[in-house]
Prior knowledge:
mainly alpha, 2 domains, globular, disordered N terminus
Amino acid sequence: MLTQTRIAERSLTRAQLRSGAQRDIRAQFYKIWAVTMLFENFDLEINPVFASLIFGALLGLVFGVSAQISRFCLRRGLVKGSDRKSALGVWLFALAFATLGTQVARSAGLIELEGHRFATGAVPALAAILGGLAFGVGMVLTRGCVSRLTVLASGGNLRAVFVLVAFAITAHATLKGVLAPLRVFIGSETVDLGDAALATNWVGGGTLWAAALIVLCLAFVFRSGARPAHLALAALIGTLVPLGWVGTGVLLFDDFDPIPLATMSFTAPWADTLFWTIASTSIPAGFGTGLLVGVIAGAFLSALIRRETKLESFESPEQTIRYISGGALMGFGGVLAGGCTVGAGLSGVSALSVVALLALGAMMIGALATDRLLDQTRIRRQSSNSVPAE
Length: 390
């Protein structure tokens, strides 16, 4: 627990107030206030790692309920289907709110991404592009991105369960296992952008580029025909992104027991949770594991209340191979790209990260190309199986 002495050590002197930059002063003030409120006024006797587990579970609970009801998924907005336009509108509305919240918090000094992979000056462009393409292909093969499959698995979809297992194993192998050397080799090809790795440092500043992104998103949303209820849930999902940054970077900040800066994502959480289930006596469960537990619980409760729980499994060996292959591609691609459609897409792009923009663009291209290829394959099969006219 943070004591009054440790809080006082963080306090600003009058000299610092006179000479420091206004933004730094505000950020320090908010940190002092937030930590004091949490650890002193409420007398919390928990360490930051466990607190991050609870915090992640709360965010995940909200995401799980919202995503289950709105069927939140970028893939649905890219592939052919009757609800394609509305699904993309829902996803972009979440991105607009994530961008708005993230940039407002950044301007207030509550979010500092220096040192985070989204802000690195040496941009791993090749890894972002190849990883994004692999992830995009995989999410079409499995008919869902990782966040959507997590929600579906909570409602009894066994296909999603097996895909997530393949995804987590491959992601962990890419991070720390047999595929790690390949990841390092691909990631070594970088482009040095320096401060320009974040659009907040471009000409015009973050406000201009954030406003441009939000306007583009809203321009599509208003023509998408998405249901107002789903848009409201998308706004809630988008708001979780800045809440995650502020929660792990400010509210739970502790110099003596630091935790990683994190927010909404599914690639690292699934890999870390897999490792934790195997070696829980050696490593503690953190924000990512809590997030997944919350998503699964929230999605299950929502599906149960809405009477949408149903056991579903594979229909053929061919389908099994397709889904498992897609899960492996997403696991490998998600690590290379620095996240999934939520981690790199929603969280990274809303931070105006160049590498996240590259990854998301590659995911969309990979998904669109794969959907078109599968569609052409279906047409050829139907043509070859048709009976010629007499």
